[in-house]
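Summary of Year 1 activities. Much of the first year was spent building the evaluation harness for sequence design. The harness presents a backbone, in tokenized form, and records the residue chosen at every position. We chose the following record to illustrate the format because it has been used consistently in internal testing since the harness was completed.
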């Protein structure tokens, strides 16, 4: 069959790489992809936001399965349009995608259906949020301030003081435009974070091994939030806790959407905090996490194309998932300055040497080919992913591989999976 992957980052390279290994897949297309994707897929010059052009491509080429990587095309209704034309799509429709497209919608749904999460308030406009912050007591900080809409993982700030919170509120509209016009202020929850992804056809839930990602730009969890600077899988979670996550958060979410007429077919990602009183929901994503996808797919032994087809067809209950028991660790190599401004066009060398170490795959995130050379083209540039018999061994191999790679201004965290 012919498959289209929509998107151009490290997650999409990992999806292309895994789908191309399926005996059921004859051809993988990627729109627009990156230089790494080109080794396993044919690149199509269409951006994820170009819903009309993507629809025309799928319909015109007779694509058998469309896999939507990023959230934006889902929030723009790409899946609805393709399904209306009779095409199979791995990803939810526009209404269900509001779980990620609007934090206030997601939190309100969770509250209506008794899904445990932080207490929160929603404000339309800067002035109302500022007025609220002026009224609360000093001992109520820290608080979390969030832009309501899509902000590429950069719209969330943990604010230790009233001044910090006011600055982020004022920054929301300036930085994120329409996505920052509505603001969510929520309780700061203490605990340890974990990411759980579940593949669902709207009825069956297939829970993938948990992963841990690292959002802060610098070692020790310091610096601004990014799209993610590394991850590892599996992240150990006690079986009793996993049972509570499924019972109290994952199953109720899928059922809540169904009861409200919003069938979900694709990946539901839950960002959770494990607290002394149990797991609590911090956020939803409606697609595979990035960079959690990279170590997860390196460990997945099952046929990803088959799992996705079953999701589209409503037969996920018949699927069997097999994992490589070895852990995997991903280290993101980024451009200096990310998540702020950064240079592009810097030559990259050493990927072949990194992968020659064995049990290493370097997924491309922000790369292009210019005049025959591989160059940087994004803030997150490469996702160095390695397997090992233990987390420590996988981590050591990933960093050994990272040290083989060079480009001007290359930066990375040195503490990915260190606590594991």
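For this record, the design step produced the sequence shown next.
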């Amino acid at each position: 069959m012919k498959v289209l992957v929509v998107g151009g980052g490290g997650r999409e390279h990992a999806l292309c790489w895994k789908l191309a290994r399926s005996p059921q897949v004859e051809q993988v297309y990627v729109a627009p992809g990156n230089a790494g994707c080109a080794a396993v897929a044919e690149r199509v010059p269409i951006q994820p936001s170009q819903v009309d052009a993507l629809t025309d491509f799928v319909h015109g080429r007779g694509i058998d399965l469309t896999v939507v990587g990023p959230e934006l095309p889902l929030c723009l209704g790409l899946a609805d349009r393709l399904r209306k034309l009779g095409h199979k799509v791995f990803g939810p429709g526009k209404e269900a995608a509001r779980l990620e497209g609007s934090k206030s919608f997601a939190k309100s749904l969770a509250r209506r259906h008794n899904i445990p999460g932080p207490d929160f308030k929603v404000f339309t406009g800067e002035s109302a949020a500022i007025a609220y912050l002026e009224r609360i007591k000093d001992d109520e900080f820290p608080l979390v301030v969030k832009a309501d809409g899509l902000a590429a993982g950069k719209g969330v700030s943990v604010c230790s003081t009233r001044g910090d919170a006011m600055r982020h509120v004022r920054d929301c509209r300036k930085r994120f435009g329409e996505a920052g016009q509505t603001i969510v202020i929520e309780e700061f929850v203490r605990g340890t974070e974990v990411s759980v992804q579940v593949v669902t056809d709207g009825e069956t839930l297939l829970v993938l091994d948990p992963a841990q990602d690292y959002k802060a730009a610098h070692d020790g969890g310091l610096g601004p939030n990014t799209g993610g600077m590394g991850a590892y899988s599996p992240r150990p979670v006690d079986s009793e806790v996993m049972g509570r996550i499924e019972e109290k958060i994952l199953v109720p979410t899928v059922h809540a959407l169904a009861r409200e007429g919003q069938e979900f077919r694709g990946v539901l990602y839950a960002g959770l905090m494990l607290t002394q009183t149990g797991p609590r929901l911090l956020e939803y994503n409606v697609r595979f996490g990035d960079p959690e996808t990279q170590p997860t797919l390196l460990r997945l032994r099952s046929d990803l194309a088959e799992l996705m087809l079953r999701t589209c067809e409503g037969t996920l209950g018949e699927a069997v998932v097999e994992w490589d028991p070895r852990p995997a660790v991903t280290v993101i190599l980024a451009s200096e300055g990310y998540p702020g401004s950064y240079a592009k066009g810097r030559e990259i060398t050493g990927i072949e040497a990194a992968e020659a170490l064995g049990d290493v795959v370097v997924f491309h995130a922000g790369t292009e080919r210019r005049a025959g050379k591989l160059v940087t083209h994004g803030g997150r540039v490469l996702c160095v992913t390695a397997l090992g018999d233990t987390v420590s061994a996988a981590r050591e191999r990933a960093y050994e591989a990272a040290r083989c790679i060079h480009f001007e201004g290359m930066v990375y965290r040195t503490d990915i999976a260190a606590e594991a």
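The first strand starts at residue 2 and ends at 7. Quantitative recovery figures across the full test set are reported in Table 2.
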